[in-house]
Design goal:
heterodimer, A: about 325 residues, alpha/beta, Glutathione S-transferase Yfyf (Class Pi), Chain A, domain 2, Rossmann fold, four-stranded parallel beta sheet, B: about 160 residues, mainly alpha, about 0% strand
Chain lengths: ~325, ~160
């Protein structure tokens, strides 16, 4: 069992690591996450002078450098912010910070490289266990939770059919997420459900969606765009076949991929899909009575305004 | 759980060069999808399961491994996935896809109403297609980073 009370208190004031994507194409995710925090009176303090987590690019050239880059973010949170919980909404950042934590706990070579580079860069070393990395889903699940959302939203999302799409990095590889699969209250790596739980608490109807952890083809986007487009088209068609009005996302790479390849699928393959794509924080924000513009919905490529109006989700 | 002893299904890729076998499988999956209510649902579900096995066989053969004939939890597909992920953890990214394929097969096998079975079949075709696209894409960039599927071209260039 997970100690829900401790987490509810601990996660109310966290170091916030938006990462590069949320300052660019994933801006709507950043804006809506901050808007929700404000509405729910949760404190987010940006990690001071944060850097890239190493993403995929650095990791593929030198995994140890990626470990260092992620470790520096954690060091900044611990030593500069003086905080011991880092919340990363981006799946790539979340994955990499968790991976760095795992490597630093288990691999002496990683410890050595990170200590050396930290020393050369003139900042304090980060050691495994000094901070806890959580996802935006962990953050909201523990703080406001389903009960809190039920009270605050009064079922505002009723009538909205949602396909919850987690993507592949939120739960994989399993060994870097030791807190998952711990029974009631914890997240599942094979059948993740935190997003389903939160949106259902706000009144949404979660549809049966078989591709919720399937790869979006994000890594193929530049090297093989057609494969990415086909993977995304298949996900979009599956969501529509499941009866979804909207796909809820929690990863900026997946989100951008779904939106951009939805457009490309029509141009390249003549396959049009109408399902909308929104960050789960945008949907929860609507449920909390926040206006679409304050949630950055106008910055999405997928135009959800008609759906928002039809489902009476305007404040 | 349904124990499978499906009638052997013709290998749609037989005679095709390796490079086009994924296209052949994808086309067959699309045909099943497009046929809508025009197919015997349980037969189509068995074929989709078989196509999933074929996808994993291609992955294994490309790695110079002999595809297992064993079953895991009553399904060869799951045994093939386990074999394919051995020494290649990133292949676990399609583990749930394989399990979804089996899940939908079971739903269709036990479904009593034809409308619901048809709906499940549509979803199953998309799951099968995802497996085909994902593994096909992975084959193109075989070599792989520790997670990212697109790592190979960068490292192959020595950049």
């Amino acid at each position: 069992m997970v100690d829900v009370t401790d987490k509810a208190k601990k996660y109310r004031d966290v170091a916030y690591y938006p990462g590069c994507a949320l300052e660019g194409t994933g801006n709507g995710y950043d804006v809506s996450t901050r808007a929700i925090a404000k509405e729910l009176d949760l404190k987010l303090t940006d990690v001071k002078d944060w850097n890239c987590c190493g993403a995929m690019e650095v990791k593929n050239i030198d995994p140890k450098i990626q470990t260092y880059l992620s470790a520096r973010v954690l060091s900044q949170a611990v030593n500069v912010n003086k905080q011991d919980v880092v919340m990363a909404p981006c799946n790539g950042c979340y994955h990499n910070l968790k991976k760095a934590e795992y490597d630093l706990a288990h691999d002496p070579k990683s410890q050595e490289v990170v200590a050396n580079l930290s020393s050369k860069s003139g900042h304090k070393n980060y050691e495994a266990g000094q901070a806890e990395t959580i996802h935006a889903l962990d953050w909201l699940k523990a703080t406001v939770g389903e009960e809190g959302l039920r009270k605050r939203t009064k079922g505002k999302l009723a009538g909205l059919k949602v396909a919850n799409y987690y993507g592949c990095m939120y739960v994989r590889p399993r060994h870097i997420f030791p807190e998952k699969d711990k029974g009631p209250g914890s997240e599942s790596t094979s059948k993740p459900h935190f997003m389903d739980d939160l949106l259902a608490a706000a009144g949404a109807e979660n549809v049966e969606f078989p591709l919720k952890t399937a790869c979006c083809g994000g890594a193929h986007t530049l090297s093989d765009s057609d494969t990415s487009t086909k993977l995304v088209l298949n996900i979009l068609q599956a969501a529509e076949a499941s009866g979804a009005d909207v796909i809820a996302t929690e990863c900026p790479t997946c989100h951008s991929g779904l939106e951009m390849h939805q457009v490309r699928a029509e141009k390249r393959f003549g396959k049009k899909t109408n399902v909308k794509v929104m960050y789960f924080t945008q949907i929860l924000g609507l449920a909390l009575g926040i206006g679409p513009r304050k949630l950055g919905i106008h910055t999405n490529i997928s135009d959800g305004m008609e759906l928002i109006t039809e489902k009476r989700l305007l404040p | 759980m349904i124990n499978i002893s499906a009638t052997p299904i013709a290998d749609v890729t037989a005679g095709s060069p390796l490079t086009t076998r994924f296209d052949v499988i994808e086309t067959r999956i699309d045909d099943i999808f497009e046929s809508g209510g025009g197919v015997a649902v349980k037969v189509a579900a068995a074929e989709l399961l078989s196509l999933g096995e074929k996808v994993l066989e291609l992955w294994l053969e490309a790695r110079d491994e002999k595809p297992t004939l064993e079953q895991k939890e009553g399904f060869r597909l799951l045994a093939l996935h386990r074999q394919g992920a051995r020494g290649e953890p990133s292949f676990n990214a399609c583990r749930e896809t394989c399990r979804e394929l089996v899940y939908h097969y079971n739903l269709i096998a036990t479904e009593q109403t034809s409308a619901e079975a048809q709906r499940q079949l549509r979803l199953m075709t998309m799951v099968a297609k995802h497996l085909c696209l994902f593994v096909g894409g992975k084959m193109q960039v075989a070599g792989l980073g520790d997670f990212c599927c697109a790592a190979k071209p960068m490292r192959a260039d020595g950049n």
